[in-house]
Specification:
binds thiamine diphosphate; 23 helices; 6-stranded parallel β-sheet; alpha/beta; 18 strands
Length: 556
């Protein structure tokens, strides 16, 4: 019943790991050849694969684990998907219903442990409930603000014979996932844009999740409004567009920060306005007279910033409705756009060149020259993530995947594998620091087993770079427990897993190594040994207002 339900919902790939409490499901698997099961090497890897699959396809990712330790290994992956609003179905085996609460072998309170990191969860004790629960779970995971739903199924329910009747769920009592934007509100928002002297639009993950990029572009162009994005919104607005402010926030671009700090109107679409966007909240956007917040989740309204105008609706629906009311910019808009151009020139993205070390930006720019706007880039967490966000010109949505809300190290490799399963026709690059990479490196076996064309770019700086930078910049240079010189030889590690690898230490060797990676069928790893002192700039010192951002003093 579990597997037929997955087929009914159009699932084609499941990431999973068997054990005593989910064996009945695994026993039935060979009878369902349409469901491709990927045996992961650790359940956390399975959760991130399902997440990467979902982000790359827009369809819910599915992961299966056994009870107790298997299920608990999913927690970080669920939290990662939950914070980034990614649709996922996690199926866990549970001990038999009559033994629940008896400390049975491999029993744990999975619902209790995951409740705060799932959109919803079910404990199934009767087989008859399986069809209804699955239909509801898919509905909940994929509608409104998407998120992971967990289904914990007792072993006796898996073994029982039950009534089968499957109806795809399209509504649930008490669950109103989406609201139509109120037309007066969107008209007011459009008027506010037209009347503002210094408007800025900020776009978050919600724009990408709801496919609202075309509407956003049209509104920006027709109203002459500059647009910045959050980290998860990168790609929601073309980075090289004349109105693009690029990434906002704590590690955003200088001209974006200047624009936000001087804007008189901020319209924020599909985003949470969290502390990575605002830095010290009391000093954020001090000149803003009006905030407009468009989000599908009513509970986001006023959570961090109280908007003057709340539009609770799906971003695409709200922006489509708004389009009709958008007016051309007033004549003085040119002044604001000129000012932004001046800031763009005064605060360009800079990096250190020619100091004898390999620079991460040189690696990323060479990758971009090859991939243009077509490849999927899955970044890990840390400096590598911010470099990958800033030094690649994303012009389309859905090509930059990373863990923004949770910032989960170890995300990139399994998420890249999941993305490749979902979009086999796309080139998929995994960009990671060596610290995060070794957290889930065992999933290399999955890439090798399935001959997946995933290219792994390690930006190896021999330390937990982002933490090392924080210690250097904000903690008086006391480097504490960030040294990673004792690490495996990554080329030999690749060899041990059965894939090819190269080490690159010099600028001249970047291109030949990338050539080889692209020529080689299947996975390929390049250990780029980069400048161990390379830092991410701009950055806002911890606890400071966003206007206090630091830049690289003498970069090119
Ligand atoms: C699972 C997890 N543990 C700890 C952290 C805290 N953290 C954030 S960035 C970072 C350093 C990452 O180092 P590395 O993977 O080598 O990447 P780099 O910053 O050097 O690019 C750490 C420890 C985290 N984000 N996730």
């Amino acid at each position: 019943m579990v597997l037929v339900a997955l087929e009914q919902e159009g699932v084609d790939v499941i990431f999973g790991y068997p054990g005593g409490a989910n064996l009945p499901i695994y026993q039935a698997l060979p009878d369902h050849p349409k469901l491709r099961h990927v045996l992961v090497r650790h359940e956390q890897g399975g959760a991130h694969m399902a997440d990467g699959y979902a982000r790359a396809t827009g369809k819910p990712g599915v992961v299966i684990a056994t009870s107790g330790p298997g299920a608990l290994n999913l927690v970080t992956g669920l939290a990662t998907a939950f914070m980034d609003s990614v649709p996922m179905i996690a199926i866990t085996g549970q001990v038999a219903s009559r033994t629940v609460g008896s400390d049975a072998f491999q029993e744990s309170d999975v619902i209790g442990c995951t409740q705060s990191v799932t959109k919803h969860s079910y404990l199934v004790t009767h087989a008859d409930d399986i069809p209804r629960v699955f239909a509801e779970a898919f509905h909940i995971a994929t509608t409104g603000r998407p998120g992971p739903v967990l289904i914990d199924i007792c072993k006796d329910a898996q073994q029982a014979v039950g009534e089968w009747e499957y109806t795809v769920c399209s509504a649930l009592p008490g669950y109103r996932p989406a609201f139509e934007a109120d037309l007066t509100q969107v008209e007011t928002a459009a008027e506010m844009l037209a009347n503002a002297r210094r408007p800025v639009i900020l776009a978050g993950h919600g724009v990408i999740l709801s496919h609202a990029e075309a509407e956003l572009l049209e509104i920006a162009e027709r109203s002459g409004t500059p647009v910045g994005t959050t980290l998860l919104g990168v790609g929601g607005f073309p980075t090289r567009h004349p109105l693009a402010l690029h990434m906002t926030g704590f590690m955003g671009t200088g001209w974006n920060i200047k624009a936000v700090q001087n804007a008189d109107l901020l319209m924020m679409v599909g985003m949470r306005i969290d502390d990575r966007v605002t830095a010290k909240l009391s000093e954020w956007a001090p000149r803003a007279e009006h905030y407009v917040h468009v989000d599908i989740d009513a509970s986001e309204m006023g959570k961090n910033v109280r908007p003057h105008l709340e539009v609770v609706a799906d971003a695409k629906q709200a922006l489509s409705a708004m389009k009709a009311f958008v007016k051309p910019p007033p004549p003085d808009r040119a002044e604001w756009l000129n000012q932004i151009e001046i800031w763009r020139e005064e605060h360009p993205l800079k990096y250190t060149k020619s100091n004898g070390h390999l620079q991460p930006q040189d690696v990323l720019m060479d990758m971009y020259r090859r991939c243009k706007d077509e490849a999927i880039v899955v970044a890990d967490v840390g400096q590598n993530q911010i470099w990958a966000a800033l030094w690649w010109n994303y012009s389309k949505p859905g090509l930059f995947i990373n863990s923004g809300g949770a910032g989960t190290m170890g995300f990139a490799l399994p998420a890249a594998i999941g993305a490749k399963f979902g979009r086999p026709e796309k080139d998929v690059w995994c960009v990671a620091g060596e610290g995060g990479f070794v957290m889930t490196a065992q999933e290399l076996s999955v890439a090798v087993e399935h001959k997946l064309d995933v290219k792994i770019v390690l930006l190896n700086n021999f330390s937990l770079g982002m933490v090392r930078q924080f210690q250097d910049d904000f903690y008086g240079g006391v480097r504490s427990q960030v040294d990673l010189t004792e690490m495996p030889d990554f080329v030999k590690l690749a060899d041990a897993y059965g894939l090819k690898g190269r080490r690159v230490e010099r600028f001249e060797d970047i291109a030949p190594a990338l050539d080889e990676a692209q020529r080689t069928k299947g996975p390929f790893l390049i250990d780029f040994q980069i400048d161990p002192e390379a830092n991410v700039y701009p950055i806002v010192p911890l606890g400071k207002g966003i206007s206090d951002f630091w830049e690289l003093p003498n970069g090119a």
